[in-house]
Amino acid sequence: MLFNKNLEKDNCGYGLICNRNGTPSRKIVTKSIDALSSMAHRGGVGFDGKTGDGSGLLFDINEDFYRKIIKSELSIALPEEFAIGSFFAKKNLKDKLQGDLKKIFRSENLKIICFRNVPTDSSVLGEEAKDTLPEIFQVFLEQKDNSSDVSLQSSLFQALKTIENKYLTEVEKDKMLSFEENLRTHFKSNYGDVWEEVNKTGDWNDDLDKKFKEIVSSFMKEGSW
After folding, report:
1. Which CATH number fits domain 61-167: 3.30.70, 3.90.79, 2.30.29, 3.40.50?
2. Which member of 3, 4, 11, 12 is catalytic?
3. Which of 14, 129, 137, 146 has a CA positioned 20 to 30 A from the CA of residue 122?
4. pLDDT digits (tens, 9 = 90+) for 5-32
């Protein structure tokens, strides 16, 4: 079920454009841009008439594209296996952030191949958006020690968790903890039997999964954030 009128506040709308044979095509990207430019995201527009509340495209990473770009821009040949991270830094804080990232990646057996500044066009932005426009850059990574038993994916995951813990603000942490605590209280107060079963057996089955989804849905409807 893609839509339920009783859950209209559940999330934003989205569009999906693809082909049936799974072949990558620039035509899909072009059509997606046309579709995106034809809709106002939730109708949210700032006082300047140009600043929206966020929209964009999500698509697969094209390795060939980045190999060509990095070779062209930085004269670097990317290895067979590499990873890309995208970062949004507050103005004048990019150097500090990149310095912190170097330490974190080094500690997780990851080697930085290069940093790349992402091209942007600020001329299309409203004044409100320009005031808070971050510096956008990418980092390209490979595994530092290929003999390690730890995979690239595992190293990336550990690095991501470290970055999240370091840069998640205290306000955001408080919000998360508040939500978790409220949900836990709601869970224990109204669904004590489920709570006891999970804590006693440690088992998680389809029946509990269904009950848990009902609990979260009930909690959200009550607006107990």
Report:
1. 3.30.70
2. 12
3. 14
4. 776 655 566 778 888 887 888 898 899 8
